[in-house]
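Good day; I would like, with your permission, to put a structural problem before you. A protein sequence and the structure tokens that stand for its backbone fold form the material at issue. The record follows directly beneath this note:
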Amino acid sequence: MTSEVVEVIADRDYDRLDTFLSEKLGVTRTRVQKFIGSYNVKCEGVNKIKDSSKVKAGQKFTVNLPESLNVNYLRAEPVDFDVVYEDEYFFVINKPSGVVVHPAPGNWRNTLANGLVYRYPEMKSLLNWLRPGIVHRLDGGTSGLMIVARTEMVTLLFQNMFKERTIDKYYIALIHGCPEKREGILSGPIDRDPNNYLRMIISENGKPALTGYRVIWNMNNISMIECKLFTGRTHQIRVHMSALGCPLVGDILYGAESEGLGRVYLHSWRLEFKHPVTGEDMKFRLPVTHDFCDYISKVKNGK
């Protein structure tokens, strides 16, 4: 049986090696444990590797993946996205709604990662082969601004900036209803729903999460809000607004009515940070999409 050797670098600390590799390789922990047990995973300076080994940010693992895991799914494919800014260190892109960021079970093809290696073949050489240059994510249904690193060094710099919360991220969302307080900070800790792997929930066992919000306008039981993320948990804005009784328009997973809209009305519209290499102030703005505007027009007209 043939195999492929890949290198996977840790973007942060992980409690367990099998959890880390499962997330990065897009396969189940059970399958990961099998090839860890077969001595197919190595890390320089570590003599004994176990499923439960702790992983430190920046550690590099060499994984000898069997052919059965179909590691060739990161194909170079044309995928629609616009580049808002680029230099030799990173891109800021406009991710369209409906484009998944990287391959995972159920979405092996036509992801942003596929499109990146198609448009920029040199990115195939980055160590995190499944997520080349990906330093943060947007949900598939979310549109807007997103940072992509062009080198391994800049990938690590951005990952540290996100960890230290020195990157300001602002979103525009349309929600059902209107919060009683027009401005505030939501702080419910977030964990995965044990009864539905696709959902996240507020749980005392979850990771701390902080979302700032302010209401821009409200009409016909729909509000536009601006949110600032102080943490970066999966589905964070969606979970917090749903818990407030104001699910995002189009967000069926978190309680919105099915209207056949085909997307969640969430848009990454502002990014502000220091350039990771030059220290220059970087500020980006991106207006909401045409379908956002079309829906707003319908709300204003009472439709």
